[in-house]
Design brief:
The protein is mainly alpha-helical and about 190 residues long. It has 9 helices and 4 strands.
């Protein structure tokens, strides 16, 4: 392999391998003309297709156990895993955020638990309420059905509950919410919390 710098006069030889990943359909983008055809074929030496997590439910528990072990080491905890009820909830959830979402859910649950086993009450409401189509009762306004709230109202209520849970500690709240402190500060300002 070799290349020439833009404006260069000498060819430079290299021995590299490029590993590229995307969640986009590059072939479709090439057909639309929004991705360069030559680059597509240069990158397409070996393709590894990774189906979404919802299509490989057998991986959920394996990955979950791996993330529990990682978090135990990282946070000096000794959590053994999940109760049967928690495992069932995790297996039936569609995981639209794939492995990243699973990892964040587990980290969040481990931050919240002081016991040996992660129970369903430590999992986010999305998992518990996925089939019901509503949010848990509670919070400032007693949140009911999803269709009665705007996304902003749900986000504001959720951030408010998390801040109360951590007594205003923005670092812990941001970690639980899966956002940066700067993003949390912006949302607090926007929602006047």
């Amino acid at each position: 392999q070799s290349f020439m710098r833009v404006g260069g006069e000498r060819e430079i030889k290299v021995d590299v391998r490029i590993i590229a990943a995307t969640n986009r359909d590059l072939e479709a983008l090439v057909k639309e003309g929004t991705f360069r055809k030559d680059l597509y074929y240069r990158l397409k030496v070996m393709v590894v297709e990774m189906p979404p997590l919802r299509d490989r439910p057998e991986d959920i528990l394996l990955l979950s156990n791996l993330f529990v072990e990682e978090n135990n080491r990282e946070h000096a905890k000794n959590i053994k895993g999940f109760t049967e009820e928690a495992r069932k909830l995790m297996a039936q959830y569609s995981w639209p955020g794939n492995v990243r979402e699973l990892k964040n859910v587990i980290e969040r649950a481990m931050i919240l638990t002081d016991e040996e086993w992660i129970t369903p009450d430590k999992l986010p409401f999305e998992l518990k309420e996925a089939d019901k189509g509503n949010l848990p009762e509670g919070g400032e306004k007693g949140i009911g059905a999803l269709e009665e709230l705007s996304l902003e109202e749900m986000e504001k209520a959720h951030i408010s509950r998390v801040l109360k849970r951590f007594e205003g500690n923005k670092s812990k709240a941001a970690r639980l919410l899966g956002i940066s402190r700067a993003t949390l500060r912006e949302k607090i300002r926007r929602y006047q919390l």
